[in-house]
Amino acid sequence: MKDNKRLEWLLECLIHVIGRAAIKPGDVTDIVGRGRKQIRAYNLCDGTLTQNKVAEKVGLDQGNFSRSVNRWVKGGIMFRFEEGNEVRLLHVYPIGENSNKK
Q: Which CATH number do you get for residue 29?
């Protein structure tokens, strides 16, 4: 089990490194949007919370958040993993909270 956790951690690091090489922070921010709640929700998508929990924590409507997630996945800045009835999300890398300012 310990090896599985380590492999998960290494894969997550690889995703972040490749993401940073492929997509600039400004491009990620353009896809996410500049709203405070959108940025906070995006940053919470680190694979530890379900999609529903992220929306709940930030105070976003489930439907609106689902549409944002679909846009982020299509934009290549987020991955969606389904485990049974749960959906977990993993961003390519977090962006700064002050990214809402140009």
A: 1.10.10.10
